[in-house]
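Issue 218. Parser rejects a valid record. Input:
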Amino acid sequence: MSTGTQMLKPLLGPQGLAALAALVRAPALFAFDFDGTLAPIRPRPDDVHVSATIALRLDKLARLRPVAIVTGRQIADVRERLGFTPSWIIGNHGAEDDGDPAGAAHAHAALDALRERVRARADGLSGAGVLVEDKGQSLALHFRMAPDRAAASALIEEVLAGFTSTLHVFGGKLVYNAVAADAPDKAVAVQRLLERAGAHAAFFAGDDVNDEPVFAAARPEWVTVRIGCERRESAARWCIDGPHEMAGVLDRILAAIG
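Output the parser choked on:
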């Protein structure tokens, strides 16, 4: 298990490539976040899709190794944006898992009180430029398009006030997310996927706050990749500069598998 933050090293450097080569020699799961990892973040979430270049490589990888998408989006939403079929998709930051329908139903119901408050404040949120996205097992309040981001952020925090005992609220890139306090996070999701895959190690790449639990829980033989080498505080071991480098990473993985 990782022990806190560490200096990120370039995955496409000699040490990172050696780590990738070692990983593919063992039964390994390859898991990826979506937004900001496989595709660049866009002002409007509906505009995000995996490029044909990346999809082709992921399709090849999925024919050789178990591949999972672990995302903050809903499963049904992200499935149509991939351009290939992974072994598994886990949605809503780990709270939506087709293999655990009872858990998903519980996570959905836990947000009902917040839904009521958001509906009651809908006019004010909309007027501030806040986009409310109800994803079933999580609620996201985006303020990327707000004309006054500071005011929009303050309004969102006011709306979310009082729910910290029942919900887990966490930030992201110009968004606030809320999930059930006891919902599985991405680290739990990846561990469950390892068991389903019968894998001993994992590759996991992500770019945001909700990916850090995976990095922190990783065992030494895992390859954990933070998207954005400028990040100074991350529990990941390796990094790439952005989604534009992912095609090269996948080429290296495929070459190592042979």
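Fixed in the parser; the record now loads. Residues 109-180 form a domain with the Alpha-Beta Plaits fold (CATH 3.30.70.1020).
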